[in-house]
## 1
Amino acid sequence: MQQLEDEKLEQVLDYERFCSQILDTDPKIRFAKVYDQWAVRVGGGMREGLESLLSEHIENELVNLSIIDWKARKSTAKVLGKTKYAMAEYDTIKRFSFYLGDDYLLLVSTEKEADTNSVVDKVIQLYYKNHN
């Protein structure tokens, strides 16, 4: 039983490091958080010194909607292939959803001025660097 808990802790630490590395790539990245399929945060957080633009309730709703969207995209993977990421641009920010295998979802928020292609490329590169 203890070994299982240790493996889970190690996994959380890996996602903490992964999210920290993402935040280090671009000062326009506001947060990077990893969630499991039950919308439980397993790593990451907000950039130090910034406050969330959303209340905790609204943020939880957006996470749950992202999880539902992620699960829906899984069903189309047989036809279209796996989704790598999805992005929504709002008036004030950009929100990215990256699909980390079948079990985890990475959510990244940036300032509106952030370069979309650069953010996507850096996150994907870091994922493969940490995944190997």
Note: The beta strands are 29-36, 41-46, 85-89, 93-100, 104-111.
## 2
Amino acid sequence: MEVQDDEKIIVQSLIGGSQLPFYLRCLKSLVTFCQDRIELQLHTDGSLSQEDNEFIHAELDSTMLVINDSPENKSRVLDFLQGKPNCQKVRKDSIWGIEFFDPIFAFAEDPISFYLDADILFLRPFSGLFDRKSVKDGAVFLKDTQWDAYSFRPCHMLTSKKTQVVEGITTGLVFWDKSAIDWDYLEWFLGEHHLHQIPEWIMPTAQAGLANRCEAKTISPIHIPNLYPNARTYDDTFGVHLLGSYRKQWIEKLEDRKKTQRKNLPIINPSLEKCVSQNFFGYSLRQFRRWKNTRLNIW
């Protein structure tokens, strides 16, 4: 029986020519271990050559796959963002704008979008991650148990109620019910340049604010953790987010895990946790923890 369009699961990601073999390793693990029928839509940063495209199709040859060139897609996305100049500017100028906006508008008729970074490596069989009912009326992210990797300072939380965000999310995995996105808030935040102290964290912070305005959830960190140096994996961990700064050391550990992992493992279904609002004191504590981790290398 054919899958109906409203049941089709299209998982989107963003890749580039840099570290392409690693990204394909992660995407192949997704296809291998996901027990649900999925198709892939890959957005690009414009750096892929024709040889890269051929390599991707060869590596993912059994997968329904579309490679969408993001520079060519820019005008289409900007049309959807008409009347939102701050959103348009971020889409034009930032790789993080591509990462957020292009998956949202790739299938405009689909109320739900499923996006994950190409640095999430899957380790064992799983099912139910891409569940439309779980996303309805909100969003799903990864849970960050270590930091609030956001772009503004704690003092900014005292100056405006609009800076209210949820605690600890990571946008390596982002599922959105598009009707839950507060576009007025997003346009406001992207225009508040004093809140953009760390450029690469502007869009994650914007999404933390959006998450505070809808029914947002996170995947349990037992099932997909962010691999900081002090992170742990468990028997039920079915995927890991390999953060760039700590990737090499963790890949070596995961190779050791693979050698001892038994075959024919049962399928894991992820559990979700409701996002909670962050406050000034909690945010300050997490900023101190980040300073201690990155400046003193104390974990």
Note: The beta strands are 10-15, 39-44, 65-68, 112-116, 120-122, 138-143, 169-177, 215-219, 239-241, 272-274.
## 3
Amino acid sequence: MGSSPIVPTLNLHTFIEIGQINYIAQLTVSIYLAHLNPLTNAHVEIIEELKNESKVKVLPVIFLRNGKEVNSRSFPFSYEIRKQMLEVVFGNTITVSPNYTFHAPFCRYLPPLLSPTSWQLRKQIIEGIDEEYFSYTGDKTEGRMLKMYRLNPKIGKRKTVSASNVKKKLYEAASGKNTNWEKDVPQKVAEIIKQNWNIIEKFSKEEDKTKKVAGMKFPKEGYWSK
């Protein structure tokens, strides 16, 4: 008789560990609230890390006034363009949602925690999420705020490439400087930016119409009025 095939032995603990990891990943949603203006290599790194432990829902911030998105030097690209950036990189492996939307006047979302409108935004953010969830941030101060809003924050390390620095390079490139901004974004995102270069040229000539309140950036347009 021939010898029996050798079957590798896996202990039950191994199966339980693998099962738990898969089960937790399937039942957990990570909420990533971000400007993504534009999507950078650092954002991609964060999202890839989150994908390893959860289903990922990305919510690019949107500011609306009279139903129209407010864009500025700090917020040049529309939600649709930013969504396109996410989709060319991640396809259908993540969910992109418009639920992180502020409606003018933006002042009504402040002060944080005391404003009923800010709690409505919190409800809007988690709408449609039935699983366990946590929110991601690389900022400790923002993490404390997310905790107070019961959004279960997970605080990660800040990445070296920031969207603000990439925007600065883009605006300098629009004035003729060689800034090598393409190295800071995925290739397909660079292509989208080049296709919408008129936006960069437009805002490179404008002053920054941004108001910073309680650590949050808002467009000046629509801050006080609808």
Note: The chain has one domain: 13-219.
## 4
Amino acid sequence: MNKKTKIILIIVLIIAFIALIILLLHPWKSNKSDGTEYYMSKKYNYWFEVDNGQATLIKYTGEEYHVKLPSSVYGVPVTKLGEYEVLNLSGAAKRGIFEDSNVSEVSIPEGVTEICNDAFYSSGLCEVNIPSSVRVVGTRAFAFCKYLRSVEFETGIKAISESMFSNCKNLRFIELPSSVEKIEGDAFAECALQKIDLPENIDTIESYAFRECDSLTFVTIPPKVTSINSGTFYSCDFLEKVNIHDEVKYIANDAFDRCDKLTICGIKGSYAEQYANEHNIPFEELDATIEFLNK
């Protein structure tokens, strides 16, 4: 091989190497079954979509256990943790970005406003911090995270969505931010909760929100709640006391089914006392002049 040929070969190898680097660093464009575009990136270990100058991370492709999510991809701000499509015998189905993954800790950047359905469903997640920019968290976002033990919220989120923390068998305590106004159905179903402080701004607790929380022993119903719905505390076997304000005017017949250790605490002459008497539940009078406390 003469000198000229060697030089040409070296130049070709250099060009090929540069092309490979560009290919790895630049996102690859592809299409979903519905025709919308998404991008795959080796640099960030994510698939992502871009719409109106905002990026949605839809699939994590890395193998790290501790993940720090980017606040932007290729200069585009990340505002949403989304879903991606998979094909099965029934057709196209959606899966959350970290669904069934081994990730154990995730740092979500300020600027993310939405966490979509099933985002961490059945993952190895142990702890997570939800920043104040997050306003919406989808259904089942953290459901079946059997190792999840620590969730930290900053003020921002308005609702604990349906089945959001259901079947989290290591989640023993959670402190909800003051911004929460609603707890949807099955939100904490079959959790290991021993204690939960419900913020005073909550005005709605939907059916079966705390069903089968076997370790829960004490709850104070927030003062803006006027009804306790069907199965809200169904089969909370060790629930001993529930403080109920006199603003509550309706309690479903099965709200406390299979809560055999329960004593209802409330104001004498209130609907809570009437309900307790009608359902053969022990009633303990609280002083109407003092504020209810979570103890």
Note: The radius of gyration is 25 Å.
